[in-house]
């Protein structure tokens, strides 16, 4: 049997049987994949509170040395810059002068025995495979999202898919442009929790495992054809119907991608609340309309759950893909002004009303019309935070949400918005506009700061250090799901 979670060598071995014609393309892509993941790991060395790290020193000749309890590592400082493309052959160097180009090797040196070694090796292999296999772009629901090749722009586990074989990845991963069919599993009514009929919509990778474990489930056959979106486990029906978020026992970046009982409970309630709070904003929250989970010995089971949500327009562009569409933009400063009007000010306005959206590049989409950004769409309510006191002041009492969504901490509320919309989306967009259009980044940040200062939380958003999730430190922690943060200088703080 092919081994799941393959490293680069294991992936090559499986490809020799599955798709031998891909081998030369895979070999060509591998150095760039090593460099891309190594750069993400160096970004963590540059900023995160990592185990064993004792000091950082930036040299005048453009290199950085980081000291750990048992070794030192030196690398080009410019390589540890977010949202930039590192050169093939990117190299870190040990104290003894040993060059390292393989990020899994560096991980093993710094943190011997950690599972992160396997995860990063798998990320390298899957990224090389994605770059090697670039089918022609399709059209229709979900097709645009399948053009994203490199995954998460900051996480060294950007293409990790633990538990999947190479054949699984070619069959189900969105960057390989598949069309798949979910399985419809009938559930005994007394074992169903949710507001939809007792039929579980299961991912075809997950369904055989569920049927083996729970023989009282009945396979009713496939759904119609769907395309997996950027998150792999969420699919868009080709007939334009609601998107379907499924549960899979696969780790992608930082977490196993299941659907929690809290998400089943909260989705429809949050959708109703958000639609009321955004009626006067150029921002549409895509409603989560139906959700359900199978009740097992553990109660409503996150491994056997799904939810459905309103689809965006086919031409809406996830912000993570916006850098690929900058050739359609004539004036970068006009684009930033438009984004302030349709994205950043609405997000800050909603924050003042008591809800922080986790508006990152996968969850947030915009429509472009003749080179102008005209509307924003937001999806996936699992990462939202709500503030009861602010909601009450706007005339909206607590909707009875479960899990970690409600908070009384204004810092947590602002962090949720800033980490996604400012530290990620704004930084990536401004970096891309600087690279592609030669725009002045100071001018773009000033435009954003001026807009945000018109909102109630503007002072905090434009002066507080920008929070960035410390994703590598989290993977190395005893509790990898507990959020850890690092903070960057806020480029909007000057002159505030």
Helix content: 25-40%
Low-confidence stretches: none
The fraction of residues assigned to DSSP E strands is: 15-25%
* Overall body shape: globular
Using the CA coordinates, give the radius of gyration. Answer: 23 Å
Q: Could you name the CATH topology of the largest domain?
A: Transferase(Phosphotransferase), domain 1
Largest sheet: 8 strands, antiparallel
- CATH class (first level) name of the largest domain: Mainly Alpha
Count the E strands.
24
Structural class: alpha+beta
How many alpha or pi helices? 13
Q: Quickly give the CATH architecture of the largest domain.
A: Orthogonal Bundle
Report, as a whole number of angstroms, the end-to-end distance: 60 Å
Q: What's the multimeric state?
A: single chain
Q: What is the domain tally?
A: 3
Question: Can you give a write-up of this model?
Answer:
By secondary structure, this protein is an alpha+beta fold. The protein folds into three domains: 8-132, no CATH class; 179-260 and 287-309, no CATH class; 317-488, Transferase(Phosphotransferase), domain 1 (Orthogonal Bundle). 35% of the residues lie in helices and 23% in strands. The protein contains 13 helices and 24 strands. The chain has helices at 8-18, 23-47, 103-110, 116-132, 166-172, 207-213, 261-277, 332-353, 388-393, 410-437, 441-452, 458-463, 471-476, and strands at residues 53-58, 63-68, 72-76, 92-94, 99-100, 180-186, 192-194, 199-202, 218-228, 234-237, 243-246, 251-252, 255-256, 283-285, 288-296, 299-309, 317-318, 355-356, 364-369, 372-378, 385-387, 406-407, 466-469, 485-488. It has an eight-stranded antiparallel β-sheet with strand order 7-15-16-11-10-9-6-8, covered by helices on one side. The radius of gyration is 23 Å and the shape is globular. The chain starts with 7 loop residues before the first helix and ends in an 8-residue tail after the last strand.
């Amino acid at each position: 049997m092919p081994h799941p979670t393959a490293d680069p060598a294991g992936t090559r071995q499986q490809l020799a049987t599955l798709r031998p014609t891909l081998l030369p393309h895979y070999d060509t892509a591998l150095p760039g994949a090593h460099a891309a993941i190594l750069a993400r790991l160096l970004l963590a060395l540059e900023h995160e509170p990592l185990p064993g790290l004792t000091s950082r020193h930036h040299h005048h000749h453009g290199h950085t040395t980081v000291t750990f309890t048992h070794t030192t590592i030196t690398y080009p400082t410019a390589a540890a810059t977010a949202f930039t493309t590192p050169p093939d052959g990117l190299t870190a160097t040990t104290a003894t002068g040993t060059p390292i180009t393989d990020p899994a090797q560096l991980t093993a040196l710094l943190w011997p025995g950690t599972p992160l070694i396997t995860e990063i090796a798998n990320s390298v292999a899957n990224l090389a495979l994605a770059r090697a296999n670039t089918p022609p772009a399709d059209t229709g629901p979900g097709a645009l999202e399948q053009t994203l090749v490199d995954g998460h722009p900051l996480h060294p586990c950007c293409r990790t898919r633990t538990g999947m074989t190479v054949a699984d990845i070619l069959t189900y991963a969105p960057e390989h442009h598949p069309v798949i069919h979910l399985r419809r599993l009938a559930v005994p009514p007394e074992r169903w929790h949710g507001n939809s009929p007792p039929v579980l919509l299961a991912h075809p990778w997950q369904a055989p495992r569920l049927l083996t474990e729970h023989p009282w489930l009945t396979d009713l056959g496939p759904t119609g054809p769907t395309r997996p979106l950027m998150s792999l486990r969420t699919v868009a029906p080709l007939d334009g119907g609601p998107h379907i978020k499924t549960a899979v026992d696969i780790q992608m970046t930082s977490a196993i991608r299941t659907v929690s009982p809290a998400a089943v409970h909260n989705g429809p309630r949050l959708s109703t609340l958000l639609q009321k709070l955004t009626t006067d904003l150029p921002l549409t929250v895509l409603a989560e309309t139906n959700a359900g989970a199978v009740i097992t010995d553990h109660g409503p089971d996150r491994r056997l759950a799904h939810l459905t949500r309103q689809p965006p327009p086919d031409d809406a562009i996830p912000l993570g893909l916006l850098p690929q569409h900058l050739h359609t933009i004539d004036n970068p400063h006009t684009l930033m002004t438009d984004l302030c009007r349709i994205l950043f000010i609405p997000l800050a306005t909603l924050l003042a009303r008591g809800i922080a959206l986790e508006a990152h590049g996968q969850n947030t989409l915009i429509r472009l019309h003749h080179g102008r950004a005209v509307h924003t769409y937001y999806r996936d309510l699992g990462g939202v935070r709500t503030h009861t006191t602010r909601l009450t002041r706007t005339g909206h009492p607590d909707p009875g949400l479960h899990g970690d969504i409600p908070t009384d901490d204004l810092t947590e509320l602002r962090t949720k918005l800033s980490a996604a919309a400012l530290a990620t989306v704004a930084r990536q967009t401004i970096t891309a506009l600087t690279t592609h259009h030669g725009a002045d980044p100071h001018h773009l940040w000033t435009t954003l700061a001026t807009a945000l200062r018109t909102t109630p939380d503007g002072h905090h958003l434009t002066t507080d250090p920008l929070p960035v999730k410390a994703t590598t430190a989290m993977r190395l922690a005893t509790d990898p799901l507990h959020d850890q943060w690092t903070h960057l200088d806020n480029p909007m703080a000057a002159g505030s």
